Amino acid sequence: MYRIKTLNKISPAGLSVLDQTRYTISTDVENEDGILVRSADMHDYAFPDALRAVARAGAGTNNIPIDRCSEAGIVVFNTPGANANAVKELAVCALLLASRKISDGVAWVKEQAAGADVEQAVEKGKSQFVGPELSGKMLGVIGLGAIGVQVANIATKLGMTVFGYDPFLSVDGALSLSRLVHRAMDLETIYKNCDYITLHVPQTPETKGMFNEDAFHMMKGGVRILNLARGTLVNDDDMLAALDSGKVACYVTDFPNGKILRGKNVVAIPHLGASTPESEENCAVMAAQELKDYLENGNIQNSVNLPTLVQPWSGVSRLCIIHRNAPGAIASITGVLSKDGVNVANMTNKSKKDYAYTVVDVDSRIGESVADTIRALDVVLRVRLLNH
Ligand SMILES: NC(=O)c1ccc[n+]([C@@H]2O[C@H](COP(=O)([O-])OP(=O)(O)OC[C@H]3O[C@@H](n4cnc5c(N)ncnc54)[C@H](O)[C@@H]3O)[C@@H](O)[C@H]2O)c1
Ligand SMILES: O=C(O)[C@H](O)COP(=O)(O)O
């Protein structure tokens, strides 16, 4: 039986991917083999010995201690693109919220409900909620991944002139991007020209606090900013000053905190980007499939810390070895096998930055003693032995 711990509510459609005869799934299972998580903060999480994989049902993995997982030989998965449509739709809503004073207007109408003549009050008071149209304005999209591409493309259909910036644009991203979207080669082009700017980058050491005083200084007066990516991308003190001075006309954020809520013209959404039944299901199913394929077959797809490696079974036993990406690592592993007289039927090795993964199918059924000898190698972080 595999033990799976859920640290957030995971869509039942995802959980049903894991056969109940082989998987125990609960919030309090101990010494778990795998974890299914959404945004729960895992930075102080003590890894049990059995833990082999963490699957994030969603895109952002900044809630997971990736380096610590890598060193412990724990594979971290996410579900790229599975919630992109939901975020794109919220981004369209956020563009309108940033422009048309809808949330202030709605709150004001509710206040009129106690009054005698609501119709009259509405017609008299509506002029305070005038806001510009999107058509004909310039939108800057920072980060052209699964979400940014969709936001950029749909904004062209709203009549906006769209500039996209992504120095690491993937081939898939480029192929999905509308030809109407202009490619900005630097952030300055976005900052200087755009009336609306929307963030769709992950939280990394490079992007943390990227919207700061220097960035606001370069932006157009009255710019409207959308942040459906992560709160930490914005320096809150600098944003509050920019809102106060009118440099930023409106800040729509899916990541409110006590400080930013005090700012004027802040529209705060309670992290609803991926909160649709469709994307919750997509993410959960994809995360559960990734976890299952890794636990049962050792295959890795959509991992943020280890390479993609899918190998069809061709032997009797399979060794799944997570190791450092270091010279001589493969030779030392195959050296153990040849010394023990084990014949390799198929073998694949892939690497990602400092880490590598080797899957070895062997013709004969081998025991844990061979795995233990490989475990003892300096370069090796984790070894699993699977039998077909
Ligand atoms: N509000 C929500 O509920 C919600 C939902 C999904 C994702 N997100 C956030 O949105 C982020 C993006 O999601 P995605 O699915 O599009 O991810 P993605 O990995 O498909 O795209 C991210 C893109 O950002 C680019 N990028 C990285 N660093 C950059 C930089 N310094 N400047 C410009 N571009 C840079 C990458 O090249 C990539 O194309 C996630 O990491 C997550 O933080 C939020
Ligand atoms: O990165 C993500 O996928 C989003 O922020 C969604 O987070 P959630 O799964 O907690 O809604």
Question: How would you describe this structure to a colleague?
Answer:
- The protein has 388 residues and is an alpha/beta fold.
- Helix content is 33%, strand content 21%.
- The chain has helices at 12-15, 66-71, 84-100, 102-112, 118-125, 146-157, 171-176, 187-193, 213-218, 236-245, 277-297, 329-339, 368-375; strands at 2-6, 23-26, 34-37, 53-56, 75-77, 138-142, 161-165, 182-183, 196-199, 223-227, 248-253, 266-268, 317-324, 344-352, 355-362, 380-387.
- The strands form 3 sheets. The chain has a 7-stranded parallel sheet, sandwiched between helices.
Keywords for this structure?
alpha/beta; Rossmann fold; five-stranded parallel β-sheet; binds nicotinamide-adenine-dinucleotide; binds 3-phosphoglyceric acid; D-isomer_DH_NAD-bd
Main β-sheet, spatial strand arrangement: 8-7-6-9-10-11-12
Envelope shape:
elongated
Helix content: 25-40%
What is the oligomer described by this structure? single chain
| Tally of individual helices | 13
Tell me how many strands there are: 16
Determine the CATH topology of the domain at 83-265. Answer: Rossmann fold
CATH class (first level) name of the domain at 83-265 = Alpha Beta
Measured on Cα atoms, how large is the radius of gyration?
25 Å
Order of helices and strands: EHEEEHEHHHEHEHEHEHEHEEHEHEEHE
Give the cofactors and ligands.
nicotinamide-adenine-dinucleotide, 3-phosphoglyceric acid
- Please identify which CATH superfamily of the domain at 83-265 we are dealing with: NAD(P)-binding Rossmann-like Domain
Instruction: Quickly give the CATH architecture of the domain at 83-265.
Output: 3-Layer(aba) Sandwich
Overall pLDDT score: 97
Structural class: alpha/beta
Strand content: 15-25%
Termini separation: 15 Å
**Sheet with the most strands, sense and barrel status:** 7 strands, parallel
Low-confidence parts lasting 5 or more residues at pLDDT below 50? Answer: none
Pfam family, one: 2-Hacid_dh_C
Family: Belongs to the D-isomer specific 2-hydroxyacid dehydrogenase family.
Function: Catalyzes the reversible oxidation of 3-phospho-D-glycerate to 3-phosphonooxypyruvate, the first step of the phosphorylated L-serine biosynthesis pathway. Also catalyzes the reversible oxidation of 2-hydroxyglutarate to 2-oxoglutarate.
Protein name: D-3-phosphoglycerate dehydrogenase
